[in-house]
Amino acid sequence: MSQNQDSAAAAWLLADLDAQITAAQAAGDRPREATAQLQKALYWLTEQDWQQSEQAFGRAAELAEQDGRWDLVAQARYAQAIALERHSDQSDAARTIYEQAAQHFAATGNPEQAAQIRAQLAAPSAPAFAPSDPERWQVWFAEITARLGRDLNALLESAAEAGASQQAQLHANRAKLAWLTSEPEQLTASLQAAVASAAASDDADLVAQIETLRRTLLSQQAAAEAGDPFSALLAQTMQTGDLPIAGDRVLQRALQALQKKEYRQVLTLAESARRNALASRDDIHYLRYLFACIFIAFARDGLGDRPGVIEILLTGKTTLEREGQTVFGRQIVELLDGLAIRWGEAALHAARVAYRRQVQARTQLPE
Is the pTM of this model over 0.85? Predict the structure, then answer.
């Protein structure tokens, strides 16, 4: 997958994982929540967002402990310690979690891994096992993703007699992992299996959910041919099913209006969603804010307001980075950079000049 496709799909994947986590918590389904938390943690690891990944690995470990899945606890605690070590100066806390991981590895039949961690902890050059060495990082990341893949495959085998809905969700989770780890053949196979299981479930909402996931992760041909991140994400959004976005019904209505090219209605709804997201402090308010800014940009582009597109994307970038969401800030930068392809260099230059003039006009004091 290209970087553009990855950038376009990432926010949708995170929103879907957050929705899974919320649903699993409501149902008291700890294994399902743990799987979603692990996938979320792996995504943040690929972006080297250590704080977000540390939190997600920690939550996954807590859930696995409650279910007595001690081999999974070992991997999650190990990953949590690495992430904690990288994003903070809490070396003592990281050491404690490393030692917990070593104990669990030893107790679950992996004494070699336990010994390796303890040797690193005893070394004068501690911190222990931060994956700054690229080769060591690749080995570790491959191990933890392979472990999660085996867990998902085992769940699929044990669910062979389960309902089609459960099988569809498991295949969908396997597809998300394949997307994160760049396994195109596994991605295609898992998505095909998820679509087939969803169709057999007679659950219209699930069918729509899986179809949206398929379109998003495969980044359909229209998006692939677009050539720039802004156009790719717009094409992908126009093909997305009629589903809630990050749990926000106002954004869902904005999506419906966008697909009908009712751009002024999109502006009204997305501005409302953006204000609501800014006022909210729940765990995914930043995702709703990101989508609202992007929808505003799409609407302004559709209305020919190119300076307005630049303005909302820059505002979104600044706000997200101020809240520590640097990954999403970088994605907005990619959208901005792609405008040169979508509009052409000359048109982009003219839009930037007009935007700067508007800013200057707003900041000038009256005579």
Answer: no
